[in-house]
Structures are given as C-alpha cells and as structure tokens.
Amino acid sequence: MHLKTLAARFALVVSCGLLTATPAFAQFWQCAPYAREISGIQIRGNANTWWGQAAGRYERGHAPKEGAVLAFEATRRMRVGHVAMVSKVVGEREVLLTHANWSRRGGIERDVRAVDVSAAGDWSLVKVWYGPQRGLGTSAYPTRGFIYSGKAADLAPVEMVDAPVKAGTEIAAL
Description:
Layout: H1 2-20, H2 31-39, H3 50-54, E1 59-61, E2 69-72, E3 82-91, E4 94-100, E5 108-116, E6 125-130, E7 135-136, E8 141-148
Antiparallel strand pairs: 1-8, 2-3, 2-8, 3-4, 4-5, 5-6, 6-7, 6-8
C-alpha cells in the first residue's frame, strides 16, 4: 500500500510539472528588453527612461526611420512608458511597429499600425493598433520621439511609401 501511495504522489508531481512547463520558444516579453533585442539599441531600464538615457549615446529625433525605437512617455495608464521599434515607414504620419506587451500581456506584435495624431505632425501623440479592437485603439499616447540606432538605415532618410489602407482601419480626422 505504501508503494502505491508513493507511486501516485510521484505521478501527481510529474503531471503537475508537465502542466506548468512551457515550450522553450514561449517567453513573456516586456517591451524594453524586446525593443533592445530587435533594434540593437543597448539601453536598459524602464521604457520611460530610454529617451533620457539615449541623450549623447544615440541620435534622437521626431522623424520615423526603419529600425528606430519610438519612446512613449509614461502616463497614468502606462506608468513605465513603452518602447516599440519601427519596422516600416508607410508615410509621413504612419508607420508599422514591432513591439511587445501591448495588446496582450507578454505577447509580441509585428508590423502593427501606428498613426501620428499630433496637431503639429511631429509624432508627439500617436494611436496604435490594438488587438482586442482589431484596429487603432481609442486612446492617443504621448511620445518623446525616435531613438536611432546604427541599424536605423544608417540614419539616412527613409523613402516614404504609399500603401493602401485596409478596409475598416480608417483614420479619424488628424
């Protein structure tokens, strides 16, 4: 009887371990480590510190370039800010972002739409595609600007590309 109890306990422990195991490729990503990984910009710490840390280390500006990181300001809803890499420049006021931990906790999103909705057209306020809504979110987020890495097209201007907008993704009046 003792051997059967021991075997049952062993089986229970093993099955619990298998249920909690995650595949090697599954990872919970925060935005900052993921942006560092894909952009090559070697800044550590919370996203809201990236803009300041980049001063003197990386060029910064207000024009999107492929490979650059868009630094979001901290807000009441986003206390440690956010960072996302520009994967493609679509137009003067639209880019595609690749980032983590936005629509789904720890999840990665590639090539999602972000639109500059700032009055001055300087990328100081953006709307970003939000998975649960399957379109641009209803909130606009303040940003500090773009941090350019050596991978950001060698800091050369990026040719603007006119791309069709998918149905159902209209931009509200800018």
